[in-house]
Design a protein that fits this description.
This protein is mainly α and about 200 residues long. Helices cover about 60% and strands about 5% of the residues. The chain is built from 8 helices and 4 strands. The strands form 2 sheets. Strands 1-4 form a two-stranded parallel sheet. Strands 2-3 form a two-stranded antiparallel sheet. Strand 2 and strand 3 form a beta hairpin. It starts with a helix and ends with a helix.
């Protein structure tokens, strides 16, 4: 999320809806909302990508790179309005969505670091354990391969968490709580795809 965080830091971006900020805000609100099976929030965090002196790629520590005071201590109004609209019109939940500032949303999300997937940690561990194991490739080649594998490794980590949470989810499903959740996931997926298409264009 380095690029997403840089976008959130821009004060002139407060007048535009930010879909990553919307996604994070939604997760935080649902985690506190009784009756919705949000079992666990597990962010996938990745820092900046740079290059070492020997040419090997380096993944930065997002927490060390991020200055929380750089985020506006103001509410992104278009994002908050979309969140409120979603709860009112689509989830049919009559509630006043908390007006969290950009800084508060990021700070709350960072507090999940203990249960998150840290790409730079996985990258270092896998590079160290596999160094020299791919015969015929230079060290930089090994490191680049490991960097390329990081998204897949993070996905496996997330799936492991989902698998652990499955019994709780199944119990909630048996109680009939998943209808609105499925609708939520579909909508969130559509908005995420829309954001990706916009940036790609």
């Amino acid at each position: 999320p380095p690029h997403a965080l840089k976008r959130m830091q821009q004060v002139d971006g407060l007048n535009k809806r930010d879909n990553v900020l919307l996604e994070w805000s939604l997760a935080l609100v649902l985690a506190e909302l009784e009756g919705y099976p949000v079992i666990r929030i597990m962010p996938v965090f990745s820092g900046s990508v740079s290059e070492a002196a020997d040419g090997t790629p380096v993944l930065g520590n997002l927490f060390a790179e991020t200055d929380m005071s750089s985020f506006p201590d103001q509410v992104n109004e278009p994002t908050w309005a979309r969140l409120q609209e979603f709860f009112t019109n689509e989830l049919k939940v009559k509630m006043k969505v908390p007006r969290l500032t950009v800084r508060q949303v990021v700070d709350h999300m960072f507090r999940f670091k203990a249960s998150s997937c840290l790409c730079w940690t996985m990258y270092k561990e896998n590079t160290r354990s596999r160094q020299g194991s791919l015969r015929g490739l230079p060290q930089a080649g090994n490191a680049q391969l490991e960097a390329d594998r990081m998204p897949a490794r993070c996905a496996v980590s997330v799936f492991n968490v989902v698998e652990d949470a499955l019994p709780t989810y199944q119990a909630l499903k048996n109680e009939g709580h998943t209808g609105k959740l499925n609708k939520l996931l579909i909508q969130a997926s559509k908005e995420r795809q829309s954001e990706s298409s916009a940036w790609a264009g």
